[in-house]
Amino acid sequence: MPAVLVHGVPETPAVWDGVRSELRRDDVVALQLPGFGCARPDGFGATKEEYVTWLVGELSGLQAQGPIDLVGHDWGGGFVVRLVSTRADLVRSWVSDAAGLGDPDFEWHEFAKIWQTPGAGEDFFDQQLAQTVEERAGVFEMFGVPHDRALVMAGAVDRTMADCILSLYRSAVDVGKEWSPDFHDIGKPGLVLLPSEDPFLSEEGARVGAGHAGAAVAGLAGLGHWWMLQDPKQGAAVLEEFWSSSG
Questions:
Q1: Cα end-to-end distance, the chain, whole Å
Q2: Rounded distance between C-alpha atoms, residue 190 and residue 202, angstroms
Q3: Helices (H), 158-198
Q4: 3-107+175-245, superfamily in CATH?
Q5: CA-to-CA distance for 184 and 186, rounded, in angstroms?
Q6: Residues 6 or more apart from 4 whose CB is under 8 A from it?
Q7: pTM recorded for the entire structure
Q8: Domain map of the chain by residue range?
Q9: DSSP state, 37?
Q10: Contact present, 100 and 110 (Cβ < 8 Å)
Q11: Structure confidence by residue, pLDDT tens digits, 91-110
């Protein structure tokens, strides 16, 4: 019965290292999004729907190991929203901190709007990649990421990841309107995480999405967007409590 963890942007599976070390189960799989710290497959457009299709394929291959407990953060949480809307049969339970992507009134944060703008998005990443890893890490630290983990995150950002981020966000300008109709009455146990200090994802939108999906909610008081890096022990405890209650 594997627990499958899906990272977000701009990240790699390393974002889950702390939580994995705190979990008591030994069947945890942290997937790696194509183009994020690894190659971008030939012909892969890096759109939101292509990533969901990729995730369906990954979970289909893991089903032989038992029912899947799926967990997603940031865009990984968005892909969870879409997957359980269309292929809930692939999971035993699901967790997302990005349920707002299933709210028809979802609005993107300012970084996303830059990345969605042709020219401005390319300029943004040109400037980022021209900086040292230490300089890039400082931005993550501003949002609560511990220094050592910020260095790992910043060091993983390269041109391949940047190009995938631009394609992904440009495919998702209207993601709330496109995905919300199917994000209703999900027939598997779900949990929506609500970090109180997340500047990128709206708690209100996440609560709306959770209500539509029929999911439980769990607040993460004092934690921000990268809650799993700020307090991996608390993150693991919340996940394990949910899995225990899910049967």
A1: 12
A2: 18
A3: 159-170, 175-179
A4: Alpha/Beta hydrolase fold, catalytic domain (3.40.50.1820)
A5: 6
A6: 28, 29, 30, 31, 58, 59, 62, 68, 69, 70, 71
A7: 0.97
A8: 3-107+175-245
A9: S
A10: no
A11: 999 999 999 999 999 999 99
